[in-house]
Amino acid sequence: MSLVVEKYGGTSVGTVERIQAVAENVAARARKGDQMVVVVSAMSGETNRLIGMARDISSEPSQREMDTLVSTGEQVTIALLSLALHNLDVSAVSYTGFQIPILTDDVHGKARIETIDGDSVKKSLVEGKVVVVAGFQGISANNNITTLGRGGSDTTAVAMAAALKADECRIFTDVDGVYTADPRMVENARRLDRVTFEEMLELSGAGAKVMQIRAVEFASKYNVPIRVLSSFESGPGTLISYEDKNMEQPLISGITSVDNEAKVTIRGVPDRPGIAYSILGPVSDAHINVDMIVQNVGNDELTDFTFTINQDDLQRSIELLEPVVKELNAETVVGDTNLAKISVVGVGMRSHAGIATGMFKALSEKGINIQMISTSEIKISVTIDREYTELAVRALHNAFRLDEIETKV
Ligand code: ASP
Ligand code: MG
Q1: Which residues, 6 or more positions from 142, have their beta carbon under 8 angstroms from its beta carbon?
Q2: Which of 165, 295, 307, 404 is 20 to 30 A from 81, comparing alpha carbons?
Q3: Which of 6, 39, 47 to mutate to test the pocket of ligand 1 (most atoms within 8 A of CB)?
Q4: Domain range for residue 147?
């Protein structure tokens, strides 16, 4: 007998019929004698609908009330799925985040899970019940309902699997695994059989939308292997797990793109110690995440300082930096949203030189100008003109022959 945690995302529970189909799936597995914990998201579109209603009432709604509101989406699906299981003569019980309880910090809208008390869930499992858990939500020490950030049900599933020491954690979604590139952009993109936690973290951070990045962080920290599967068709999916040093590794696992970043440039900054701190200090104090950073070589003791952020934070960043420009006696601060970040990710890069060159060559052959470059041990990212996003992703997918069977190193 194994203990299995399964998670079904919004599209997988998007209608009553879909919920019944999930119930059939779960029932089949439960009848084999496995213990099942099923985490569900809100029905697709529901979280957005709830947020929309709040926005109609208030332009700056209270974060506490927002969490109370959006957590209701998942409460609906746990009850409906439990009822659908009862119809199939499977005994099932639903749990909200606070009934378990899933204890989080009190940062509304992006709370972090602190502890999970698995006792009540374990008791229900021993009684032979399927346990249906509301994803995305928890409770803070002062008894407020919290939520874990958009896409947070993935994190609930991984955290439940870690807390219960589950044998398997399966994430059912609307795609049948992790791909070498977004299949909507690259026709011959290929499903990966497996990918390491490290690669998945880089892929999620660089634009792959398969799983919430926090869920991958959690899985890697607690070593919970995850299998990503489609709830619409059967197939092996993609296994996300630790790197197996005894196995050959693919050179490149994937190409990703992000087109919601913006670039901020401060021109004519005096080139002296403390500049990066004076510029980025106020930005990070405002909880704005900075992605790439470039400081150009100075001319006449003046330099240009450029960094990228989410484009939603552009206006705010410029406002924060206008006084800094005056203080530093710099020329000006300008923003630019016409950019995309393209990344090549693969653990094989660690032991293989020339990947960066191959990337630059492929882009130059298409006449695509590279603006900024940043690298990690297993990732190379560049920013380019946004209009060339698809062209760049396709060119790189071809250049590294990702449509073919994996090149191993
Ligand atoms: N319902 C929440 C959202 O849409 C959580 C989730 O789907 O994982 O973000
Ligand atoms: Mg979702």
Answers
A1: 106
A2: 165
A3: 47
A4: 3-174
